[in-house]
């Protein structure tokens, strides 16, 4: 005996087919559980770019500063560069708009829109127009993983690496500077 299709929640009568899990968490999942990167993720969630972190097809590289690195910045990401004109008073709306733009630019500078290789010195374009970053392998202890012997822009060390279903996350002991 064949039973007729039961209506599903959407009323289509089509059988429910569960989505299969790839076995790896998304970048959004990794950022959620990486407590040492909570400040970066807090800033990133304020932007539309954070949608990339859960996009299964994104395949991006995130450069994620630790909380300690963000705290050490002389000017925080929402503050942007030093003001050009001292004494200019902004309305609350203007200040909020400027803060959002500063955060957007800072987060863009920490996203490379493709997978990268750490094997040889190479420059990569970030999502921030005109901002490139360079990874340089250093000579050192061959018992240390390859990623731990690489610096970003000459002085920022990689302190961790996480692989996600939609890209890679490199944890940094510094930030990408927007100078």
From TrEMBL:
InterPro entries: FAS1_dom_sf, FAS1_domain, Mug57-like. Residues 24-176 form the FAS1 domain. The keyword Signal applies. Keywords: Signal. The keyword Signal applies. SUPFAM superfamilies: FAS1 domain. PANTHER family: FAS1 DOMAIN-CONTAINING PROTEIN YDR262W (PTHR28156:SF1). This is FAS1 domain-containing protein.
């Amino acid at each position: 005996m064949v039973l007729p299709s039961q209506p599903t929640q959407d009323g289509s009568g089509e059988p429910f087919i569960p989505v299969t899990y790839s076995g790896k968490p998304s970048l959004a999942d990794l950022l959620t559980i990486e407590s040492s990167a909570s400040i970066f993720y807090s800033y990133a969630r304020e932007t539309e770019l954070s949608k990339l972190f859960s996009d299964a097809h994104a395949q991006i590289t995130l450069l994620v500063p630790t909380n300690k690195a963000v705290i050490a910045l002389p000017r925080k990401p929402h503050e942007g560069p030093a003001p050009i004109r001292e004494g200019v008073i902004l309305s609350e709306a203007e200040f909020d708009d400027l803060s959002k733009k500063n955060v957007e630019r800072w987060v863009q500078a920490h996203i490379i829109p493709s997978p990268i290789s750490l094997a040889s010195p190479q420059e990569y374009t970030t999502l921030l127009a005109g901002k490139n970053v360079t990874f340089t392998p250093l000579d050192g202890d061959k018992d240390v993983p390859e990623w731990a012997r690489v610096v970003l822009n000459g002085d920022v060390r990689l302190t961790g690496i996480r692989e996600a279903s939609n890209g890679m996350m490199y944890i940094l002991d510094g930030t990408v500077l927007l100078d």
